[in-house]
Specification:
mainly alpha, 7 helices
Amino acid sequence: MRALAVERALRCVIFLAVAAGVFKVKGSRERLRHAFDQDLPYLKPLANQIGWNPDNSKIIHTISHAFALSSSTLTWIAVGLAGYAAIELVEAVGLWLMARWGEYFAVIATSVFLPLEIYELTEKITATRLIALVINIVAVIWLLWSKRLFGLNGGGKAYREEHETASLLSVERAGLRETAASATP
């Protein structure tokens, strides 16, 4: 649970950084576009030596397209990224605290984005996309089964019984240790 919480917290930090970057680009878009257009020709000799054509580069076209977006579009993109970061933060906190609501929240939040991740794989299969999808599917299945969410594997009743039994056993063991410690001279 804690490892998943740390992974979600890292995602939160990354999406907040990207949102901040979008806000920063929005504020100085014209200056950055001018610098980009001015400095791009300097890249061409190096690009030719490594066999890369910047004129046909998807990255260059994406950057150029980003400069063409309106300020309001960039604002909405940044707000969306910050909102996603907030979802990741809530998920991380709930999982770190090992709260039942955090487990439900994690399953729902992760499951909602699975169709988008699958769609992205239909566009282009990359190792990063594939690994992210596998991690998220495994996390959802593990949380559903091991935490007995949504009635699976005995549901909430079995989950509570398991934890009450574990709590009673730890109290009994502690009591036995105290009794054994006080019996020894």
